[in-house]
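## retry 2 of 3
previous attempt timed out at serialization; input unchanged, resubmitting
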Amino acid sequence: MTTGRILNIPNILTIARIILIPVFLIIAYWPPALGVTDVQADITFRHALLTAIFILAAVTDWFDGFLARALNQTSAFGRFLDPVADKLMVAAALVVLVQWKPTITMAFAGIVIISREITVSALREWMAELGARTNVAVSTVGKYKTAFQMIAISVFLLNWQPLNILAYILLYMAVFLTLWSMIIYLRAAWPYLKQP
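## retry succeeded, writing output
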């Protein structure tokens, strides 16, 4: 049973997550304050703030789903907006990271992750039209992919040099899980895709 209300607590958290995206971008690109004598301290604070915002968004992603079930406040609007909010925040963070670290390793990871989200979203929409959306429901691999992705991006945003190698390891584990989960979804949809 669902409440059907749009402005319930879980949906407010989801909307807040979307509102955090422009805040995240403004902080990422805001020029150093005039008169700042310790530029490095300003940069360190900025990276810590960006990491905190991204982690807050990741936590509310889990929390809004938990509250929707616990408070019986699930809604069609929430089921639509929740995954959109997640993808928007991840895409925004990846675009920023690719600009900060313009290397083929970062660009490749960003392209794979964003492309997978577009592909799977389109696949789910198409499968829903066929009445078979449950065949491409979120898998366990997809959940692990999201966890590795969120942790990797958070470590990159922190921009602490000793964790740089760890960040790349986590990111490419997320890339591997991203491709694996996409293959799982495509295999589940293949019987429908090969129909004339």
